[in-house]
């Protein structure tokens, strides 16, 4: 198959355990783009946390795309134009805050440049700001501070407590919101129908490309819809077992140049 699009998750996929893109992986993606392939960075991160990686991989030069917020906001790198933007239904925000009021879980959301967190900070709260290099504002009055439009809510906390509240929230918002893990300590709350796998078809239609011409790489639960949708869905060797089960191919880990080796074998 002549794959025309390459979609890559960031954390645990494109970057290694030191949060770096290895030279071999970078070279493979640049070579693929030089041969006419387009790269899509598909991440749960806010755009601010994706722009430096897109610049490093020269997506502006090669007409690549950023899918931030798990596809809630899609940006064309050559024009910096937002192609698709799906906002979170804020009428659920106060109820979500109420459900979590007795927990140790931090509630976070994002504007274009900053991260807003409620006052219940924990050991995992600062992980997002560290990887995206964004300023984080801790709010005693979270609802009062979040007056802007936003694309997603992120919950940060101990994995076992997040699992308990994931079950509660999924039951409460069944058919209203999408709720899934992106890491053991992160729970994403998204507008209904917004996932990497559900938003990629809109982008492919915009580009006139068939799903069979898409190869997608991921490692975690929020990558499953993307891997299931792609013509060739690739799970990283370090990925979750559930992700590997639905993939067409399991490559080497993110510390072993899994993306590069797969592209060298199937694309380059």
Topology:
Elements: E1 5-8, H1 10-14, H2 23-34, E2 38-42, H3 51-56, E3 65-68, E4 73-76, E5 81-85, H4 93-99, E6 106-110, E7 114-118, H5 127-132, E8 135-139, H6 142-145, E9 153-156, H7 159-172, E10 177-183, E11 186-191, H8 196-207, E12 214-218, H9 224-229, E13 232-235, H10 241-246, E14 249-250, H11 258-266
Parallel strand pairs: 1-2, 1-12, 2-3, 7-8, 12-13, 13-14
Antiparallel strand pairs: 3-4, 4-5, 6-7, 6-9, 9-11, 10-11
Helix pairs in contact: 2-11
CATH superfamily of the largest domain: HAD superfamily/HAD-like
Roughly what percent helix?
Answer: 25-40%
* Topology order in helix (H) and strand (E) letters: EHHEHEEEHEEHEHEHEEHEHEHEH
Going across the biggest sheet, name each strand in turn.
5-4-3-2-1-12-13-14
Strand content: 15-25%
CATH class of the largest domain: Alpha Beta
| Radius of gyration from the alpha-carbon trace, in angstroms | 18 Å
Distinctive features:
14 strands; eight-stranded mixed beta sheet; six-stranded mixed beta sheet; alpha/beta; Rossmann fold; 2 domains; 11 helices; Hypothetical Protein, Haloacid Dehalogenase-like Hydrolase, Chain: A, domain 2; 268 residues
């Amino acid at each position: 198959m002549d794959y025309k699009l390459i979609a890559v998750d960031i954390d645990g996929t494109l970057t290694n355990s030191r949060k770096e893109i290895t030279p071999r992986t970078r070279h493979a993606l640049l070579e693929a783009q030089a041969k006419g392939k387009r790269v899509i960075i598909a991440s749960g991160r806010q755009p601010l946390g994706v722009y430096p990686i897109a610049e490093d991989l020269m997506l502006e030069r090669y007409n690549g795309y950023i899918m931030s917020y798990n596809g809630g906001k899609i940006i064309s790198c050559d024009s910096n134009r937002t192609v698709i933007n799906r906002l979170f239904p804020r009428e659920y925000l106060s109820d979500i805050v109420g459900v979590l009021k007795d927990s140790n879980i931090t509630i976070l959301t994002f504007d274009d440049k900053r991260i807003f967190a409620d006052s219940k900070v924990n050991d995992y709260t600062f992980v997002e700001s560290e990887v995206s290099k964004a300023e984080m504002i801790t709010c005693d009055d979270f609802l009062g501070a979040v007056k802007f439009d936003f694309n997603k809510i992120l919950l940060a906390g101990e994995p076992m407590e997040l699992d308990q509240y994931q079950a509660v929230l999924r039951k409460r918002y069944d058919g209203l919101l999408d709720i899934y893990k992106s890491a053991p300590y992160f729970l994403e709350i998204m507008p209904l129908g917004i996932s990497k796998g559900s938003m990629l078809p809109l982008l492919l239609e915009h580009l006139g490309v068939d799903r069979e011409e898409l190869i997608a790489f991921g490692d975690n639960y929020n990558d499953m819809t993307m891997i299931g949708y792609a013509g060739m869905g690739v799970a990283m060797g370090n990925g979750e077992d559930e992700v590997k089960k639905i993939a067409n191919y399991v490559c080497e880990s993110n510390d072993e140049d899994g993306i590069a080796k797969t592209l060298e074998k199937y694309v380059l």
